Amino acid sequence: MANTYQYELTYVISGVVQQNQVDDIVRKVNHLIEDNGGDVIEVDEWGNQRLAYEIDRKRSGYYVNMYFKAPGPLIQRLERELEINDDVLRYLTLRMDAKMKRHYKKRKRREAQQQEEDEAGESESSEDDE
Predict the structure, then answer these.
(1) Hey, is 63 helix, strand or coil?
(2) CATH of the domain at 32
(3) Which site in 6, 75, 102, 118 is 20 to 30 Å from 37, CA atoms measured?
(4) Distance between CA atoms of 59 and 38, rounded to whole angstroms?
(5) Can you list the positions of beta strands (E) in 15-102?
(6) How many domains in the chain?
(7) At CA 76, angle to CA 89 and CA 12, rounded to 5?
(8) What gap in Å lies between CA 29 and CA 101, rounded to an integer?
(9) What is the pLDDT of residues 36-82, one digit of tens each?
(10) Cα Dmax for the chain
(11) pLDDT score for 2
(12) What pLDDT is recorded for position 118?
């Protein structure tokens, strides 16, 4: 079996498609990765954003950012599928190096710490109400 690496993939889906079509595209990308020996770590849907410049006469797009582990040969197939799909305007796949992995772990720790602080603040305010 080929070596697995960690990747970050960001892709932009046309802003004119319906939400159920967006969900189908995200689900297809996830299944493609998982069915070919990959492991989806995190999918972060950023939602509709205005594009910096027009792409195919479209001014907005639905951004999806994901982290996954997969064998190297899968990337070519994944990018080919994204290229074929007319609703995907742009995509960028990055193989994560050590610095990117450290940044990712630091960001996850920061998010977990923030969530703990928020939960602690909520429990304190509910105790004060009693």
Answers:
(1) strand
(2) 3.30.70.60
(3) 102
(4) 33
(5) 39-55, 58-71, 88-95
(6) 1
(7) 20
(8) 22
(9) 999 999 999 999 999 999 998 899 999 999 999 999 899 999 999 99
(10) 59
(11) 67
(12) 83
- Residue 119 in any domain: the answer is no
Q: What's this model's pTM, rounded to 2 decimal places?
A: 0.81
Q: Is the pLDDT of residue 1 over 70?
A: no
Residue 124 lies in a domain: no
CA distance 18 to 21: 5
Closest to 64 (Cα-Cα) out of 84, 87, 80: 87
Is the residue at 94 inside a domain?
A: yes
Q: Per the domain annotation, does 34 fall within a domain?
A: yes
If you average pLDDT over residues 84-97, what whole number do you get?
A: 94
Residues near 46 by beta carbon (within 8 Å), at least 6 away in sequence: 62, 63, 64, 65
pLDDT value of residue 13: 95
Residue 66 has what pLDDT?
95
Give me the residue label for tokens 């046309």: 14
Range of the domain at 73: 4-107
